[in-house]
Design brief:
alpha+beta; 7-stranded mixed sheet; 4 helices
């Protein structure tokens, strides 16, 4: 059993909001100037690779990357909480248009002094994830 930790608690609430498809609950977990890099670097979700900063940009990221999925499940094998951050290892399993994908990687969340998420940095490889695509 893992010890309660502010970053672990906030990130698990974030995962629950995604599973429930509750955008408002998800956004409420972020600080006003938070940064989401999912994945880190340039991708189809973030061509510049600079991430999505602030609630408006994070809301748009939801619409682009999360909302189109029929379901998203976080299948994490372990987590490591240090300071004001937690890193999860494992995969994010998503279902979209009759297909499933598994994004394996390391998923890092940082919180501020009141437990709001200030950064999400997801280290997963787009090409590697696309190779996992298969019928649902």
């Amino acid at each position: 059993m893992t010890t309660p930790h502010p970053a672990r608690t906030a990130s698990q609430a974030l995962h629950a909001a995604v599973r429930k498809r509750d955008k408002d609950a998800w956004l409420a977990l972020f600080a006003a100037d938070a940064l989401v890099e999912d994945p880190v670097g340039p991708s189809q979700f973030d061509p510049s690779g600079e991430g999505h900063r602030g609630l408006d940009a994070i809301s748009a990221f939801w619409d682009l990357a999360i909302a189109p999925n029929e379901s998203i499940d976080f299948q994490f094998e372990d987590s490591f909480a240090c300071g004001n951050e937690v890193a999860f290892t494992g995969r994010v399993h998503s279902r979209h248009d009759g297909r499933v994908l598994d994004a394996e990687g390391v998923f890092v969340y940082r919180v501020d002094e009141v437990g709001k998420i200030v950064a999400v940095r997801a280290f997963w490889e787009v090409e590697r994830t696309m190779r996992t695509m298969r019928p649902a």
